[in-house]
């Protein structure tokens, strides 16, 4: 019996799916070898009248506070305990991360200071920026840190195609602004972003001058970076903040080329009034610093950041009680990101939260991690992110890629195609070591192979009826049979494209 199209779709109701050299190579190989000597094959639970399964908290943590488990990760978290794993992730400097560290050491442009960087080829910067993000997300054991780098990259979004030089500036922003502060204090992040040449260029503050102010950065600084659109500020406040920021731009020549500075000739030195507070005349850079401090300590900022964090990690409709607790933690800890994350991931709301659809980038990385894939990031791999709908650093608007499931639910077919291409070796730059996984799991039959990969992708064994449908499709051949191997690859691809993998 073959698995019909109807039955294939019936499995979980996925109707929408139908309609570098040197240290870099060593790092990838180290990650590929970082697989347990033995993998366990999960066994189905006893039949219990089809009661809904309880949330697997370690698996949910790996999927939401990381990019999903690599082989052996789920068992490690279960042994450590969810709270201890989380606490370790909140202190990434204490986590041994050889593979990711080796990959980072192989980066060329990341080692250059700004004056050197701005003389390089932008296309090279794009490849290194995107490729290193993929490689670090895939190999790093500091998973929460990598996820927070992505979160803040969305929050302080910068479009890579703003102009020709933007890839060079954004690489520096990633290195100097986002990564050093992803688990620090929000104030420090905001301050660094306000001094980022990439941000000042992207939101046109380099064109903000006395007599002809440009309001773009001032508006997004309040609407998207701090207060939120519903905080009650006015258009006059936007205009006054723009006046405060006049002359705040980027050096274009000399040994300090590419650095943020105040062009005093372009600055408006007259008095201003922002959010009801008077800024006396003649102050220059100190009034910029005062304005940033006003915004970061404003009560609306705590509420806005809390809601974004809860929306990303808990639910598309952030629970009000948890959001308020996180906002209070922001106020109590001076915007400490670790404290807010600890509260979120240890909350009852996180444990009982509704499922969220993985964003395309998370699906992409988690698919590669589940199968311990060794990749060589290149243009073809980047094109898959475009097909999936979330090419890294390519969201044109300043609000960053959406956090809600509805934004991504209409583009699921490319996920199915990606899984099939990966399993059937149609991606030369991505090697899925399927035979090694089967050997590590000591799977001796197609039935055992199916449950082994269900454990790697779904975190559990297959239900009896799903297992039978898969076995009907795979047939009764031996593991050595070519046709059996092809059909097993089809079923693993389906596991990756199913709701059980995509909704976490």
Notes on the protein architecture:
With 504 residues, this protein is mostly helical. It has three domains: 5-80 and 356-502, no CATH class; 201-284, no CATH class; 299-351. Helices cover 54% and strands 3% of the residues. Strand 3 and strand 4 (277-279) form a beta hairpin. Residues 1-22 have low confidence and may be disordered.
Brief summary of the model shown:
This protein is mainly α and 504 residues long. The chain has helices at 5-10, 15-18, 23-33, 57-64, 73-80, 82-89, 98-105, 114-117, 122-139, 143-155, 166-178, 186-194, 197-202, 216-225, 235-244, 285-297, 299-313, 320-332, 337-345, 348-351, 360-370, 379-388, 413-423, 434-440, 446-458, 464-474, 482-497, 499-502, and strands at residues 248-250, 260-262, 272-274, 277-279, 374-375, 430-431. The protein has three domains: 5-80 and 356-502, no CATH class; 201-284, no CATH class; 299-351.
What is the rounded distance between the termini? 32 Å
- Beta-sheet strand percentage? under 5%
SSE class: mainly alpha
Residue ranges: pLDDT <50 for 5 or more in a row?
1-22
Helical content class: 40-55%
Based on the structure, what is the oligomeric state of the protein chains? single chain
Number of distinct beta strands: 6
Order of strands side by side in the largest beta sheet? 1-2
User: Helix count?
Assistant: 28
Mean of the pLDDT scores?
91
Largest sheet: 2 strands, antiparallel
Gyration radius (Cα, Å) is 25 Å
Rough shape? elongated
What's the domain count?
3
């Amino acid at each position: 019996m073959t698995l019909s199209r109807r039955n294939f779709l019936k499995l979980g109701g996925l109707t929408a799916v139908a309609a570098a050299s040197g240290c870099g190579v060593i790092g990838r190989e180290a990650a590929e070898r970082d697989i347990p000597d033995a993998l366990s094959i999960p066994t189905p639970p006893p039949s219990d009248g089809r009661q809904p399964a309880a949330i697997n908290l370690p698996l949910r943590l790996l999927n939401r506070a990381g990019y999903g488990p690599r082989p052996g990760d789920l068992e490690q978290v279960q042994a450590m305990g969810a709270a201890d794993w989380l606490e370790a992730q909140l202190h990434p400097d204490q986590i041994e991360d050889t593979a990711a560290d080796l990959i980072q050491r192989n980066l060329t442009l990341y080692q250059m200071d700004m004056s050197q960087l701005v003389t390089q080829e932008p296309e090279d910067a794009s490849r290194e920026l995107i490729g290193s993000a993929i490689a670090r997300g895939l190999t790093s054991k500091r998973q929460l840190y990598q996820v927070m780098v992505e979160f803040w990259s969305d929050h302080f979004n910068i479009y890579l195609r703003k102009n020709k030089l933007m890839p060079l500036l954004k690489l520096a922003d990633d290195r100097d602004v986002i990564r050093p502060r992803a688990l620090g204090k929000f104030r420090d992040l905001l301050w660094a972003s306000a001094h980022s040449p990439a941000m000042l260029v992207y939101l046109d503050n380099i064109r903000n001058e006395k007599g002809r102010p440009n309001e773009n950065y001032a508006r997004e600084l309040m609407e998207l970076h701090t207060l939120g659109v519903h905080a009650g500020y006015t258009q006059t406040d936007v205009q006054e903040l723009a006046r405060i920021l006049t002359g705040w731009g980027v050096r274009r020549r000399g040994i300090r080329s590419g650095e943020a500075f105040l062009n005093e000739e372009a600055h408006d030195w007259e008095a201003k009034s922002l959010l009801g507070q008077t800024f006396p005349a003649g102050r220059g850079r100190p009034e910029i610093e005062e304005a940033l401090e006003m915004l970061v300590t404003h009560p609306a900022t705590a509420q806005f950041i809390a809601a974004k964090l809860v929306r990303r990690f808990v639910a598309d409709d952030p629970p009000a009680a948890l959001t308020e607790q996180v906002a209070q933690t922001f106020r109590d800890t001076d915007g400490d990101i670790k404290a807010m994350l600890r509260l979120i991931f240890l909350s009852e709301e996180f444990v009982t939260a509704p499922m969220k659809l993985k964003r395309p980038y998370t699906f992409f990385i988690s698919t590669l991690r589940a199968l311990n894939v060794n990749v060589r990031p290149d243009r073809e791999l980047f094109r898959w992110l475009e097909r999936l709908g979330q090419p890294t650093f390519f969201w044109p608007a300043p609000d960053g890629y959406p956090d809600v499931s509805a934004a991504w639910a209409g583009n699921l077919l490319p996920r199915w195609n990606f899984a099939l291409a990966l399993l059937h070796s149609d991606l030369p730059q991505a090697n899925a070591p399927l035979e090694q996984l089967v050997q590590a799991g000591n799977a001796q039959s197609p039935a055992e192979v199916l449950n082994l990969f269900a454990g790697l992708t779904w975190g559990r064994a297959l239900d009896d009826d799903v297992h039978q449908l898969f076995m009907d499709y795979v047939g009764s051949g031996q593991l050595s049979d070519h046709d059996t191997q092809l059909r097993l690859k089809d079923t693993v691809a389906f596991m990756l494209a199913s709701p059980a993998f995509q909704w976490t």
